[in-house]
């Protein structure tokens, strides 16, 4: 059976990946190929129900098992490969495959992984034992609550207060905005301000269960691409000292560590969307006749498809390089992660738009592949760092790179 998820095998064969990654790509492609009924079910569901359904299914089928490193590495229960803790190349491959097959599946996988990663990297043993098994099973849904209406990409601008109490705990007051899985999460990783120090100083990360008194969903949001999405309110929300993730005052470090690792995975999801759009456009061009000839025989169509192929190759290589840099422990992997996110998301927007143009009126019919992709791709250029912020961040690294080259030449 032909797999629906069309990884570029030539890219997978490059030294960026090993045999485990290639086996994982085949395994997740087969899983996605068998999910047609599930994809249709969740598209017809309310966003909250879809998020819960898919997280549960991903957990049940073993795709989230790597979120509990305490259970040990190894294959899924059916013997097929699964991602391993800390392997960002594996996470990127998962996101690319899931995005190609179904946006909501990528959303469920990515947000659960995003919420669990700070726990894996900074949690103490008790916090890990308490939360990670449920997150790996998909029975405990997580969310990462960093954004606020006046502090999106600007993490340093966070205003949610967490003031110390007499018993050593904290009381949280304020709001969070645009929180993915915000309306269904069982556990929130929350970044709040614990001192009056300016900017990035004085931020702390907290683990806040959804049933904590004073925490509530302030508003459910209806996005262009429907998904679980909400504003949160914290009103005298009291948490114990044990709720602190990592150390007090290290919230900015935890948030940036997470975002720098996951930006490349956003690029991988964009690559999955873009590849699905390009494949859909190519199939249409091969079958649609215009003026008595196939659309693909027209020079402008060939040029458009060729541009898509170049853009896909560039994105795939940038994502692979960024994930490889992170996995090998390069101290400058964040720069490559930012580059991969910027390029892959911007080019994916162009590819999807080009696919819609090639399909013509049929490309904007509600529920069609390209219409769904057209709505789904847009948010990737915004979340986890807008394209404008990525450009500024990348530009900020140029002087250091020039200094390195000059020193090397001298």
Structure commentary:
- The chain has 410 residues and is α+β, with helices and mostly antiparallel strands.
- It is 51% helix and 14% strand.
- It is built from 13 helices and 10 strands.
- It has a 4-stranded mixed β-sheet. The chain has a 4-stranded antiparallel β-sheet with strand order 2-3-7-6, with no helix packed on it.
- Helix 8 runs parallel beside helix 10, helix 9 (299-327) runs antiparallel to helix 10 and helix 10 runs antiparallel to helix 11.
- The protein is globular.
- The mean pLDDT is 91.
Features:
four-stranded antiparallel beta sheet, 13 helices, alpha+beta, 10 strands
Give a topology summary.
Blueprint: H1 9-12, H2 19-33, H3 36-43, H4 47-60, H5 88-101, H6 103-122, H7 125-137, E1 142-145, E2 161-164, E3 170-180, E4 187-193, E5 203-209, E6 215-220, E7 229-239, E8 244-245, H8 251-287, E9 289-290, E10 293-294, H9 299-327, H10 333-359, H11 369-376, H12 387-395, H13 398-409
Parallel strand pairs: 1-4
Antiparallel strand pairs: 2-3, 3-7, 4-5, 5-8, 6-7, 9-10
Helix pairs in contact: 2-5, 4-6, 5-6, 5-8, 6-7, 6-8, 8-9, 8-10, 8-11, 9-10, 10-11, 10-12
Based on CA inertia axes, which overall geometry fits? Answer: globular
Strand order of the largest sheet: 1-4-5-8
Indicate the structural class. alpha+beta
Summed up, the helix count is 13
Number of strands: 10
The low-confidence parts are none
Give a concise summary.
The protein has 410 residues and is of the alpha+beta class. The protein contains 13 helices and 10 strands.
């Amino acid at each position: 059976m032909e797999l629906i998820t069309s990884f570029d095998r030539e890219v997978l064969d490059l030294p960026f990946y090993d045999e485990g990654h290639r086996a994982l790509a085949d395994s997740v492609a087969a899983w996605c190929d068998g999910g047609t009924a599930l994809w249709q079910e969740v598209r017809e569901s309310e966003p909250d129900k879809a998020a819960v359904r898919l997280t549960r299914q991903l957990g049940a089928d073993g795709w989230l098992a790597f979120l509990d490193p305490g259970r040990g590495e190894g294959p899924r229960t059916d013997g097929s490969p699964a991602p391993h803790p800390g392997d960002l190349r594996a996470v990127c491959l998962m996101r690319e495959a899931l995005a190609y097959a179904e946006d909501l599946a990528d959303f469920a996988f990515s947000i659960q992984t995003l919420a669990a990663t700070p726990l894996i990297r900074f949690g103490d043993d008790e916090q890990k034992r308490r939360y990670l098994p449920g997150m790996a099973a998909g029975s405990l849904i997580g969310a990462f609550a960093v954004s606020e209406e006046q502090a999106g990409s600007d993490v340093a601008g966070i205003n949610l207060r967490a003031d110390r109490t007499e018993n050593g705990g904290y009381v949280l007051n304020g709001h969070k905005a645009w929180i993915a899985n915000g309306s269904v999460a069982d556990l929130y990783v929350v970044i709040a301000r614990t001192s009056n120090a300016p900017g990035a100083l004085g931020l702390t990360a907290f683990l806040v269960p959804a049933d904590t008194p004073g925490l509530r969903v302030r508003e459910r949001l209806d996005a262009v691409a429907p998904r679980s999405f909400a504003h949160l309110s914290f009103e005298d929300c009291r948490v114990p000292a044990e709720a602190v993730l990592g150390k007090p005052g290290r919230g900015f470090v935890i948030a940036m560590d997470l975002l720098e690792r996951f930006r490349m995975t956003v690029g991988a999801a964009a690559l999955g969307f873009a590849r699905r759009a390009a494949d859909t456009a190519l199939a249409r061009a091969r079958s649609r006749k215009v003026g008595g000839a196939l659309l693909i025989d027209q020079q402008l169509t060939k040029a458009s498809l060729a541009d898509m192929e170049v853009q896909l190759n560039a994105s795939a290589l940038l994502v692979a390089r960024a994930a490889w840099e992170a996995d090998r422990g390069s101290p400058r992997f964040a720069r490559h992660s930012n580059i991969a996110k910027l390029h892959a998301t911007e080019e994916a927007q162009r590819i999807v738009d080009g696919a819609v143009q090639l399909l013509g009126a049929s490309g904007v019919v509600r529920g069609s592949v390209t219409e769904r992709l057209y709505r789904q791709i847009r948010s990737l250029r915004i979340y986890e760092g807008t394209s404008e912020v990525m450009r500024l961040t990348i530009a900020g690294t140029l002087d250091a790179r020039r200094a390195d080259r000059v020193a090397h030449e001298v």
